[in-house]
Amino acid sequence: MAPRCWRWWPWSAWRRARPPPAGSTPSFRQQFSTQEQPPQICVVGSGPAGFYTAQHLLKHHPRAHVDIYEKQLVPFGLVRFGVAPDHPEVKNVINTFTQTARSGRCAFRGNVVVGRDVAVPELQAAYHAVVLSYGAEDHQTLEIPGEELPGVFSARAFVGWYNGLPENRELAPDLSCDTAVILGQGNVALDVARILLTPPEYLEKTDITEAALGVLRQSRVKTVWIVGRRGPLQVAFTIKELREMIQLPGTRPILDPTDFLGLQDRIKEVPRPRKRLTELLLRTATERPGAEEAARQASASRTWGLRFFRSPQQVLPSPDGRRAAGIRLAVTRLEGVGEAARAVPTGDSEDLPCGLVLSSVGYKSRPIDPSVPFDSKRGVIPNMEGRVIDVPGLYCSGWVKRGPTGVIATTMTDSFLTGQMLLQDLKAGLLPLGPRPGYAAIEALLSSRGLGPT
Questions:
Q1: Cβ atoms of residues 218 and 166 within 8 Å
Q2: Residue 148 — φ and ψ, nearest 5°?
Q3: Which of 8, 287, 303, 369 to pair with 401, CA 20 to 30 A apart?
């Protein structure tokens, strides 16, 4: 059995951690009595939310000890397994997390599945406080006929496959088809499209898994359609990812100019980031490229396109019914304006042939333990500023706190706030007094269940 505990990882070449932004709690460090028992705090999840929460607690309490529990053998969550391999700069935050893990008051407890190997109430009995930061481990389903056919995958699973996430290593996507369809128009959708279309010689320079690289070398996918229910003003991807797609070697974009009619006037009042993004889409769709870019596009062997105002109705099976062969899309129109506009079907539909369908319509959290309240509709743990409602001493941070939105910086701010609330409660005497055994008690429980470290 794999070992369950590492205190730190010897990646000494990584840079020193940057201090977190100044917040409202620097004086906490001086406010805690040196006579009090060192608080034992448990964080469940070792992604950005977990590590940023731990970082805040360790910085602002001079004696706090934090154990970070993780179901995987290794830490860092979506930073390790969710970031595209050709985006190494996004993974630089691991340097900061590594410095946190090296603290003598922090320990990583890997290969422990909270809710299965150990219950949340057992953690609460062993620690002064428990913070749930386990993220969004599931994906939103399409809930359409044919979704179960071979050739249909969630984008989350596909990303996990090319990043080496253990639960997705055996995904084995068949890339022998000519056309792939990605449902959703966020950054993950563009990441997946980019990986499908990037020449293998470029991917060789990244940390993509060898198994995925071998499959991508044999890929016959030449066209990728990225489909959205709404229009160009509602896309969820950012300008950086769009620019990367436009400049992707060996590819050319396909955009329908009619999708952009009247858009020039409507973007005058939108926020600047949305305006710049839409202007780039407009130029790509309507302007004739310069001579150099035209020559590059003419020599491209692969294409990608954005299909707007389309909603999935059904995955179409092959004649023998054994795999996906296309997707039926309902044509939509918008009701309302701006980002609040809602897509409604017009009654028309179209069939788009394809051999691979990737659903990228969002992540969602799962309930972790029957003892923890969970809002299934919103996919979050009910909380007030990170305090779990009606469960004193239990907190949450990150996506399981607010939903799967925002970037790493958003999660940092969110997690610091949860840490601040926990320290306020500790100072106010709202958390258990007296010593708590911490990991010693949990280690004994795991050992009694045949799950102890080896």
A1: no
A2: -85, -5
A3: 8
User: What's the rounded Cα separation, in Å, for the pair 419 and 58?
Assistant: 10
Residues 6+ apart with CB under 8 A from 411: 48, 49, 52, 397, 398, 399
pLDDT digits 0-9 by tens, 296-320: 888 999 999 999 999 999 999 999 9
Cα separation, 211 vs 203, whole angstroms: 12
State both tokens at 406. 């925002």
- Point out which residues pair with 179 in neighbouring strands: 223
Alpha-carbon gap, residue 186 to 238, rounded angstroms: 8
Report whether pLDDT(454) > 50.
Answer: no
The count of other CB atoms within 10 Å of the CB of residue 428 is 8
Distance CA 267, CA 253 (A): 22
Q: Give the single-character DSSP code of 89.
A: G
Q: Are 400 and 365 in contact (CB under 8 A)?
A: yes
pTM for the full model?
A: 0.87
Sign of torsion, CA 136 142 145 149?
negative
Contacts of 190 (CB under 8 A, 6+ apart): 226, 237, 241, 242, 244, 245
